[in-house]
Amino acid sequence: MALCLGPGKNGDKLNNNAHNNMLANATKTGINFSNNKPPKDVWFKSDGLKLHYLDWGNKNDPVCILLHGFAQTAHSWDFISLSLSHKYRVIVLDQRGHGDSDWDKDKRYSTEYFVKDINNLVKINNLNNFNLIGLSMGGRNSYYYASENQNMINKLVIVDTGPETIKKGSSNIRNFVQMNDELDSIEEFVERIKKYNPHRTEEHIKGNILNNIKQLENGKWTWKYDSFLRSEFNNRNAHQKNEDQWKILEKIKTSTLIVKGGKSDILAKSTLKKMSDVIPNAQSVTVEEAGHLVPGDNPIEFTKILLKFL
After folding, report:
1. 101, 52 contact by CB (below 8 A)
2. Burial class of residue 149 in the structure, from the number of CB atoms within 10 Å of its CB (0-12 exposed, 13-18 middle, 19+ buried)
3. CA–CA separation, 203 vs 18, rounded Å?
4. pTM of the predicted model, to two decimals?
5. How many structural domains does the chain have?
6. CATH value at residue 188
């Protein structure tokens, strides 16, 4: 059973302020949207954990499930959710260990457990024939889910990930997430992110940062995901071999779009082509002026491509 649990009177006010700030940033960025309503915060139980998702739009509309990347949150998709929610119900999951979802005390963060959570999310909402869209880690979780649940999905979108990744990009992510994770101010996090991702403006980063960090009792700020994931970055799916992932992709008959960032240091052109060849009903597209985090780096172009495909 899913529980729509509001954060209370003061929390509602903070959420409304954050949403209004997001709308203002979306307008400045040039995002096209017609739905001004904030999403509902919903929690549900999965595998003994209390997981959170954002529920945008009208419940009677076709459904899109969005899955964020490693070390991100459901709010990473805010601009995209805002653009889609005039014609789709958009469900954006905080995957286990991230955002406002529980951290797993047993540290079960391999793909099979993320896929289990997708299954429970689908069951709790009684969904079928929905669109599944995942970025990076969320993209991998999406294609594993799709390979096992062909009859449930209308269309699949895999964003800037695949069975093989560019070592330099993976090293950059590892080095970034393993830096000191407690800083004195929000501005220090903004500066760090700006250096890591020059595709984002400082204003854009400031508009999103509060959804990705939290303040500790000692007054310092830290990331809003389980620190275990930072220390175990290379070991999350050590048992899953690249060749196994190619076999997973071969199973997918669902109409699929594979999206690559034009400046991505994670997904190579050769891997993109191989994925397009291996998945029977796939097409691919490159979003220019975007790095690995395509939906956030170039949300306008990404949304146009997404809406056309859907």
Report:
1. yes
2. middle
3. 14
4. 0.90
5. 1
6. 3.40.50.1820
